[in-house]
């Protein structure tokens, strides 16, 4: 089965940086390598991946070129994303459609530490399921509030799982689900939610604690710690 990967990198990274002139998080280096380069490399180095497609912000063309990626024919030329993550994923899926991949993995550029074994287990799970994503058990106690002040309940933590990427699907199914999702007035938080909404059967695989999404400024220090404890 052919596997394509969409790496969504078209965000502005606002929560990770304060000033408007700072380098967007996916182009910042950790351990001497840009986050986006790390994420792309994690997939290009997978023997069972046929294509990796970065989706970038139109204003980041030069930043992308400066990464000096390429050299592997499986790394496709980047396409431009949209104003939402959902729009950026759809732009990637549209660009991949002519290649007719069997499976597609959708990955946040901001998760540079995706382990190879996790990628493999997502792909493996698609043998039986229509969607697969890595999750971690929620460890905090989760309170429910309607007004942000008064507690109206406590969630049953055993039922809750925190989602990561890559999220994998059969290409044709997630493409048509995404096309339909784009035509309704609703914002979906991840691709698995779109799959669930479309009635696809989505399963979880064990995520990894190092598979963090760089989101806030202190996540860069956390990333450096992950790299220094790393044997790769
Ligand atoms: N993303 C994208 N297109 C968008 C918004 C987000 O491709 N319009 C990508 C980001 O580049 C990131 C991933 O989706 O790799 C997850 O999004 P998030 O962590 O929220 O990144 P940003 O949207 O860039 O950050 P922020 O929300 O803090 O501005
Ligand atoms: Mg965002």
UniProtKB/TrEMBL annotation:
<feature type="site" description="Transition state stabilizer">
    <location>
        <position position="25"/>
    </location>
</feature>
<keyword id="KW-0479">Metal-binding</keyword>
<comment type="function">
    <text>Bifunctional enzyme that catalyzes the formation of 4-diphosphocytidyl-2-C-methyl-D-erythritol from CTP and 2-C-methyl-D-erythritol 4-phosphate (MEP) (IspD), and catalyzes the conversion of 4-diphosphocytidyl-2-C-methyl-D-erythritol 2-phosphate (CDP-ME2P) to 2-C-methyl-D-erythritol 2,4-cyclodiphosphate (ME-CPP) with a corresponding release of cytidine 5-monophosphate (CMP) (IspF).</text>
</comment>
<keyword id="KW-0414">Isoprene biosynthesis</keyword>
<comment type="similarity">
    <text>In the N-terminal section; belongs to the IspD/TarI cytidylyltransferase family. IspD subfamily.</text>
</comment>
<feature type="site" description="Positions MEP for the nucleophilic attack">
    <location>
        <position position="157"/>
    </location>
</feature>
<keyword id="KW-0548">Nucleotidyltransferase</keyword>
<feature type="region of interest" description="2-C-methyl-D-erythritol 4-phosphate cytidylyltransferase">
    <location>
        <begin position="1"/>
        <end position="232"/>
    </location>
</feature>
<comment type="pathway">
    <text>Isoprenoid biosynthesis; isopentenyl diphosphate biosynthesis via DXP pathway; isopentenyl diphosphate from 1-deoxy-D-xylulose 5-phosphate: step 2/6.</text>
</comment>
<feature type="site" description="Transition state stabilizer">
    <location>
        <position position="15"/>
    </location>
</feature>
<protein>
    <recommendedName>
        <fullName>Bifunctional enzyme IspD/IspF</fullName>
        <ecNumber>2.7.7.60</ecNumber>
        <ecNumber>4.6.1.12</ecNumber>
    </recommendedName>
</protein>
<dbReference type="GO" id="GO:0008685">
    <property type="term" value="F:2-C-methyl-D-erythritol 2,4-cyclodiphosphate synthase activity"/>
</dbReference>
<comment type="similarity">
    <text>In the C-terminal section; belongs to the IspF family.</text>
</comment>
<keyword id="KW-0456">Lyase</keyword>
<keyword id="KW-0511">Multifunctional enzyme</keyword>
<dbReference type="GO" id="GO:0050518">
    <property type="term" value="F:2-C-methyl-D-erythritol 4-phosphate cytidylyltransferase activity"/>
</dbReference>
<feature type="site" description="Positions MEP for the nucleophilic attack">
    <location>
        <position position="213"/>
    </location>
</feature>
<comment type="pathway">
    <text>Isoprenoid biosynthesis; isopentenyl diphosphate biosynthesis via DXP pathway; isopentenyl diphosphate from 1-deoxy-D-xylulose 5-phosphate: step 4/6.</text>
</comment>
<keyword id="KW-0808">Transferase</keyword>
